[in-house]
Every structure is written in structure tokens, then in C-alpha cells.
Amino acid sequence: MKMLEALPIELQEKICSFLDGATLLRATCVSTQWNRIISGLQMVWRQASLREGFGTPVKDWKLHYVTCVRLLQRLKKGKAFQHRHFAPKCFQCSDVRDVVFWNGCILAGIKKCIRVWRVEDLKPAAVFDVPYEIFCLSVSFNNHVLGVGHYDGAITTWLLDEVEVRASLLQCYVGHRDNVVCLCVAPELNLMCSGSRDSFSVRSHASSMNKGCPIEWKTHNQLLEEGFTMFRMELEMKVSFSIGTKVSFSGVAGST
After folding, report:
1. DSSP assignment string, 3-60
2. Does the model's pTM come out above 0.90?
3. Tens digits of residue pLDDT in 201-247
């Protein structure tokens, strides 16, 4: 029992690094001393976490590993999520067009306004009015910009204030001739993409958004053709490199 205690920490880490997470947890149950020693080997628990795909940087890697394992087990049993019935009396369920999560809040697009509730207590936090009827919502990855797709084909972007829970209009974009059904806003990439029922997909640079003009219009068929062309060019380059001869392929997108 005292053999592990007598070893220097370098050898403790070396020996325990050969064990998987489940074995490490069983080893902590041997005795109080083993639990104290093994639980303190942060590099070992970090390695075990990364091996299982639990790679978020944390201070206590053992706690992180145990938490992730328990959550994974609950996911497999369908018990990882808590469900709460939420039906505010200020609107009918049929009025809700889209719902997104932002900074601990629920944002719901309802006709020409966006209502905000805090997740922790489901109490109203704010209401944003928008100029056109809402079809879809999208929050950027950095949680700073909200994109709103409208029924008439317009798109508006809003700067979100996390402290005061409010939104300020950034820009309105026009170009689509029908409902904007999907939207992705990525200011960190200087890019915004949108899709509409008019069979067009639009890609816009944030630098050109001051004028509200898209930089590129493509139909869905054009996007498929573009994807096939890029695949064909990549394949030609790989084959040419492998045999040292220029090779060209011909075909039509969607053909076998």
C-alpha cells in the first residue's frame, strides 16, 4: 500500500500515465493515501481527459474527467437534460418564429419584436422591436451580433449588449426576393451567409455591409456545381502529383 507513496512524483505520473481513466478512478478507492496522490496528478488526468475527447482547459482535470464521464453516461440514458414547460401568456405559441440561446437568455422572434427571458428563472429581461416581420434568428459565435432574417427578404444585424441586455441596430441588408429561411453571422470571419426561398444563397463581407449590398449571389444549383468543380480540381492535383503527369477529368455535377 505504501509503495506508491514512497515513489517520487515523476515515477508516480509515469506509472499512472499507462492507466485509463476508469482504472485511475478504481485506484483512488484503494486507500485515502492513494486517493490523495492519484487525484493530485493533474497531468495524468489531463492525459486521460484528452484521450476520451474531454479537451476543455480546466484547473482541476480529475473533476473535469469525472464530470464529463457522468454527463456522458446520462446522455446515453437520456437523462442529461432538464425539461421545463415554458408558456408565457403574452403571446400564442403559433406566433413564435424562431428561438436562439444567448448569454444565459432565451431570444424568441415574435412577429415584429424579439422577447428575451433569462434561463435561470424564466423572467422577462427585455424586448427589442424590429422593422420587419421575423422569420429566423442567428447569434454569432462570439455572442456579440444578432442576425435577423425577415419575411420580405430583408436582413438586419444587431449589436448585443450583455450587460444591459439590449440590442442596437447595425445594418439592414436587402436583395432577397422571398423569406430568409436561414442565416449565419460570423463577424470574426468578416462574413455573413443567408439562404432564401427565392433559390438564392448570399455571401456578404462585413466590410461591405455598410451599404447593405451582398458581394456574391449564387443559386443552390450553382453552389452544387461549385462544390463539384472544387472537388474535381483537387482530385486532378492529387493524381497529377502522384503520377507526375497532368490529368483532367470531365463531368457534370450530380452525374455518376
Report:
1. HHHHS-HHHHHHHHTTS-HHHHHHHTTS-HHHHHHHHT-HHHHHHHHHHHT-----S-
2. no
3. 665 554 444 444 444 445 555 555 655 565 555 555 555 554 454 44
- At position 198, the amino acid (one-letter code) is D
Determine the Cα–Cα distance for residues 81 and 153; give it in Å rounded to an integer: 36
CATH 2.130.10.10 location in the chain? 95-214
Q: What is the pLDDT of residue 231?
A: 52
Q: 88-127: per-residue pLDDT in tens?
A: 666 655 678 888 888 888 888 888 889 888 887 888 888 8
199 φ/ψ sector (left φ>0, alpha ψ -120 to 50, else beta): left
Q: Is the Cβ–Cβ distance between 218 and 226 less than 8 Å? A: yes
Please name which of 73, 114, 74 lies closest in space to residue 91, comparing C-alpha atoms.
Answer: 114
Architecture of domain 95-214: 7 Propeller (2.130)
Q: What fold does the segment set 3-77 form as a domain?
A: Monooxygenase (1.20.1280)
| Three-state DSSP state, 191 | strand
Sign of the CA dihedral running 220, 221, 223, 227: positive
- Count of CB atoms within 10 A of residue 237's CB? 12
